[in-house]
Fold this protein.
Amino acid sequence: MTKVDLHLHTTCSDGRLTPTQMVELVAERGLQVVAITDHDSTEGLAVVFEVAKRFPQLSIIPGIELSTDIPGNEIHVLGYFIDYSDADFQRTLREFRDGRVGRAREMVDKLAALGLPVDWERVLELAEGTVGRPHIAQAMVEKGYITYPQEAFTKYLGRNGLAYAEREKLTPAEAVRLITGVGGIPVLAHPREVDNVESLLPGLKAAGLVGMEVHYGTYSPSEVKGFAAMAKRHGLIACGGSDYHALGTPGEVEPGSVGPPLETAEKLYALAGETAKLGQ
Ligand code: AMP
Ligand code: ZN
Ligand code: FE
Ligand code: FE
């Protein structure tokens, strides 16, 4: 068990627990520092901080996860301690979310053309916040086309899937700068999912990247070791978390089962110039 989990999703994006339920769950599990990192949205954070007042031992980092693209690869960038009250930042996030709606519609149309119609209204209903491929996958589960959402990714919604559609995305360096622009700490998410990830690190570091995920969801001990060494080589802080979405799929990694040590959280708090409730 760990005390730190820096990657969690709620119903504000494609997670299944509300922000309130998520805070209650991580508090119950005795976590001390967590980051809420919804895709392209900080809509849950106000409630998160309100509910967190009930749990004095729990520190919460305001976070975000941005999707970016380079040719042939999808790269996610996490941002911690962002000033989410920034109006320009919020406008940009709204644009990202709007772009997702058109793209989701396109994928739903492609599925229909493949003989797998799902109800567009149902997809929008499942997406209480940022709409994403998992909501389409869930609509496919409800239709009985598949048993678990991940099956939709393999054949239809993954990057090379039959119903995949693209949307305008930032480059990873632009995402890094967007995050530092609102006082945040940018961290590269799930590096195993990126081809030749190490070749990207010098450029991203120059753009302002501070950390990368190492202690991540399903990574094996040897993968964690390898990414820890990579982070060290590039002077990046080794972060991580469960990337919990509460989907209920077999083997889903739960909050508190994987994450960096408490000292890492302390380092992030020190960098952000903030004080955690650590050790209180
Ligand atoms: P989107 O935000 O629409 O690009 O969808 C990305 C999200 O889909 C990720 O954050 C994951 O939650 C989920 N996802 C990506 N790949 C898979 C997969 N192979 N199986 C299940 N869920 C996935
Ligand atoms: Zn997600
Ligand atoms: Fe991600
Ligand atoms: Fe994530």
